[in-house]
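pasting Non-canonical purine NTP pyrophosphatase for the record, 197 residues
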Amino acid sequence: MKHSFIIATHNQRKARQIEEVLQFYHYNGQMYTTKLPQQQFPPEATISYRENAIGKAVFISRQLPTDLIIADDSGLELVAFPNRYGVQTARELAVEVPNGQLNNYLIHLVAGKSRQFSMKTTIALAVGGHVKKIGYGELTGTIADKERGQNSTGFDRIFIPAGEKRTLAEMERAQRFSYLHRARAVKNLVAQLENAR
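structre below
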């Protein structure tokens, strides 16, 4: 029997993507608010992807001690700006790009500079307030000079994986999932669960 996970995030877009990835690998997932509609997260730390993911997973798993709780933390790292973003990606970009036009902003930010990027994800599994497994995923590549593709949204329209010429949004789902940092982290995590059986 495949596992069913509770996803500890208040970001609905992220939750939907994780649900889609889990379904792709034949698992089930649902956002924690389906069981804890009023629960809010404590302020997120800025130590590391790993600590942030663990903090969210453990926090919700204490409220739902019999469920398998997963939480991730992700960040963008740019070769051209090694001291920006990373663990602080969401917070920094929210301040820098209040209009939400993130793709255009990043395209212009790296214009004339290195276009290389890395997207990293750490995903933690917690049960009863204790961490059980940690999964990791990373996507490296280059930022396109314009948005391309209609098969996905967000950064997928400007991220070209290393060794590819197309953006993620120009790929079909199976190929796109083989590259997505979050999908790779989920795959790594569930592989550990399968191997532990």
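The chain has a mean pLDDT of 94.
Residues 4-196 form a domain with the Maf protein fold (CATH 3.90.950.10).
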